[in-house]
Please model this.
Amino acid sequence: MVGDSITNLYGTTDTWPALTGNSHAGNYGVPSNNTSQMLARMPGILRNKPRAVFLMGGVNDLTTGVSTATGISNVQSMIALCQEAGVPIYVLAILRVTSAYPNSVSFNASIDSKNSAFQSAVTAAGATWIDFRNNLLDAHYQGDGIHVAHAGNVIWAASIEPYTSLYP
Model:
């Protein structure tokens, strides 16, 4: 899993190997990373020869001023790097925040807009888009309004299992 604090499973004791049942599942989530920073890390991640990459990024683009156009370019570049390395890449929709998060209504509108743009770019680049946001709508799945709590991580792992199971 490549991304930010959300993919890092911030605030929980969960691990991707435990959630997916795959001892090879790696956690390349770095708190506060935006898509520019993820792109800079991708060559190093690919040197580890992952069987597949699951990428979720973009929420910190909104908080750090990275434009949607730059975010799209960054995601397309990460897709291209994975494709050049022969590594399948799955791009996950940015999760919405709950009402506990400041300015949640306008922030979620920005997330939805970014997701729409990302989905088009991901599909055009020949990668797989995974959108499981509707599985995590209950507030108790996000303990602090943005980071996913244990119950949400379990649902997240189940939502992507059809894809993660391809890489035992």
